Amino acid sequence: MNVVVLFTDDQRFNTIHAWGNEEIHTPNMDRLVNMGVSFTHAHVMGSHHGGVCAPSRAMLLSGKPYMNIPRAYIDMGVTTPDTHFDFVTFPELLRENGYDTFFTGKWHNNTSKIREGFTDGDNIFIGGMHWPKDGGHRQPQLWHFDSTAVFDKKDNWKAEKFSSEMFSDAAINFIEKQDSKDPFCLYVAYSSPHDPREAPEEFAKMYDSNNITLPSNFQVEHSFDNGHLRTRDENLAAFPRTEKMIKKELAAYYAMVSEVDAQIGRVLDALKEKNLMENTVIVFAGDNGLAVGQHGLLGKQSVYDHSVRVPLVIAAPNIEGRQKTEALCYLYDVFPTICDLLDLEIPSSVEGKSLFPILKNKKTEHRDHLFLAHAKEMRAVRTDDNWKLIKYFVKGKESEQLFDLNKDEWETTNLASDPNFSKKKKELESLLAQNIRNNNDDFIQAHIQLEQQHFDQPVKVSMSSSFSNTEIRYTLDGSEPTLESDLFQKPFTLKESQPILAVLFLDNKKIGKTYSAEAKISSQIKDLILSPLPSPKYAGKGSKTLLDGANGSDDFHSGNWLGYESDNVTAILELKKQQPIKEVGVRFLSHPGSWIFSPKNIKVFVSEDGKTFTEIAQENYNADANTPTNKGFEVIEFKSVLKNQNAKFVKFEIENLGVCPDWHPGKGGKTWMFLDELIVN
Q: What's the domain range around 400?
């Protein structure tokens, strides 16, 4: 039996005519609905960053939740294509079992699994989206199959057809060569309807924006800060949103869905013409949803239904068509389902739960709840009795939403503060905490906020938690907090420099990681001047961020980092008087997968008058930046111990790498540099 997987990009669950959207034209997706079983409550689990399609594709291929897949695999550019990862993808398994495996379309992960999983392929796009400056969908930059998985920049070429047509062309060419001797696996990963929304005219003219219905949960702006209100996706349209604007966006979005639908139809026709339908498993799914105006959002960086629910239809021989199920499931349940349909043993690395019993009408329920997550800021549970609890933790502030989806499918009525639902909320909080623990997730952690008017004044210490029903225990002597440590109840003031460690306890058990900060009171510092100022997106508390003692974690949205896009930084620290300098240094973040690189070079100078400076320390990281790495987030500290250095001014010159190196998928693009602390002892 053959396998065909058709995967769309940024397609929301309710963009299929046969699933109830009367305004959209999807005859070929409707055809699949008639052929197979529709899983109307399929979900993507989430993502550790805004590019949800990367972990989503990794989960589909591996059958694993994204938290258990190496970041070095999920995020392109973190390591080299010859890296081996210790898990199996479904194309690898089928190839090992004698299948001819073929890939075409978008690949948004480390390319090593192309080499290991596919015998051939063509018209391959390596990256996240077709940027307009590079040709967009109309002239996509593609590669032919590369058995080494290197996909060198010099080997890519610009196509003259729309992206979806190029991918369907490659798929049809492969289908036409099949002679039925060996089974095959065809994986077609479309890059549509992801923006840019530039559907060919024949599809664009299908939709008049004046006739598009606004979603019931349309808002001009999101009602609070979810930590992702100014991402790339959100900046595709102006703020605040208007009805006219969103209708126009929806019309363009629907046109893109219809465009990719037509190309899916071409692949289905080719299968039919080769008489392959009766012996082929077909999986149709989308990687993640998209808001397009719902809740005041445009993108997919949330855990609302519009962003986490996706299309999923499975058609197979001896499986009755025109069925629909509301069973809760994940995209990563597809891999073990394919195994059961083909009567293959499920690999030990697979963690998904097979949907085969539902396909065979032996079960109606699958999972009693789902755990959903986005980046560092959002966690949720959704239960099979249609309740959803969402927790947000943004810059030390907790927010929460409780929805009864039985009565509120558009997620507009927040019941979290309604005492009538306190029992249900507590039940879901317990379930959410259990899932966070089971996934070794560090979402639950204490947050320490330090406030200081001047460098020589007392420090006000506040603490908060992502879970309101947790206890925060802390120490001021550098020791690890325990249940016997002080309980944080209200803000307090420190009049001398002290280390602060804080831990959360839930039901008398430690949960999450230890959070640390250092209250610094210095009678020596007069001023700190930064040039230029950091990006407004990552501005922290301004220059005080670099001397506040609040150590940044691997969460660069936390407010404890200053972020610079391609800019070099000069920081001049003025002391109140000339004195001996014993040590200088800089703390910074590195994660090439997020385009965050170590500084290219750090130089430190001292001066007595603020005019004439002498270099006293220097460190070059250029070699590190030009070496491919499989490391995840790293907080790195450069320190230099000094002897006999007196100064009133200390100047730091920190050089940004500027552009991504040749080995990185963002080659030539701007790099980010994140600074946390300047060290001057």
A: 376-438
Query: At 29, which helix (H) or strand (E)?
Result: helix 27-35
Amino acid 441: pLDDT: 87
Question: Which is more confidently placed, 123 or 376?
Answer: 123
Given a contact cutoff of 8 angstroms between Cβ atoms, the answer to whether 232 and 283 are in contact is no
Where do the DSSP E strands lie in 18-160?
A: 37-39, 42-43, 46-47, 100-107, 120-126, 141-142, 157-158
- Rounded average pLDDT over 637-659: 93
DSSP-derived secondary structure letter, 670: B
Task: Say whether the peptide bond before residue 196 is cis (omega within 30 degrees of 0).
Answer: yes
Whether residues 250 and 264 share a domain: the answer is yes
* CB-CB contact of 301 with 23 (8 Å): no
Residue 643 pLDDT: 86
Same domain, 425 and 553: no
Any idea what the CATH number is for the domain that residue 240 is in?
A: 3.40.720.10
d(CA 210, CA 442): 46
**pLDDT tens-digit readout, 280-326:** 999 999 999 999 999 999 999 999 999 999 999 999 999 999 999 99
Q: Residue 442: what pLDDT?
A: 79
Q: Residue 614 maps to which CATH number?
A: 2.60.120.260
482 and 568 share a domain? no
Please list, in sequence order, all residues whose beta carbon lies within 8 angstroms of the beta carbon of residue 433, skipping any fewer than 6 positions away.
Answer: 444, 467, 506, 511
SS3 279: helix
Q: Are 44 and 330 in contact (CB under 8 A)?
A: yes
- Residue 130 CA to residue 274 CA, distance in Å, equals 32
Q: Where are the alpha helices (DSSP H) in 385-527?
A: 422-438
CA angle 607, 611, 612 (to 5 degrees): 55
E-strand stretches of 360-480: 369-374, 378-383, 387-394, 397-404, 446-451, 459-465, 471-475
Q: What is the reported pLDDT for 77?
A: 64
Residues 661 and 591 in one domain: yes
pLDDT for 632 equals 66
Looking at residue 677, its pLDDT comes to: 92
Calpha distance 70→256 (Å, rounded):
32
* Domain CATH for 519: 2.60.40
* Same structural domain, 455 and 568: no
Q: Find the mean pLDDT for residues 402-431.
A: 97
Q: Assess whether 537 and 510 both reside in one domain.
A: no
User: What pTM value is reported for the model?
Assistant: 0.86
Q: What is the pLDDT of residues 33-47, one digit of tens each?
A: 999 999 999 999 999
Q: Are residues 507 and 558 in the same domain?
A: no
pLDDT tens digits along 84-130 = 999 999 999 999 999 999 999 999 999 999 999 999 999 999 999 99
Question: Do residue 428 and residue 454 come from a single domain?
Answer: no
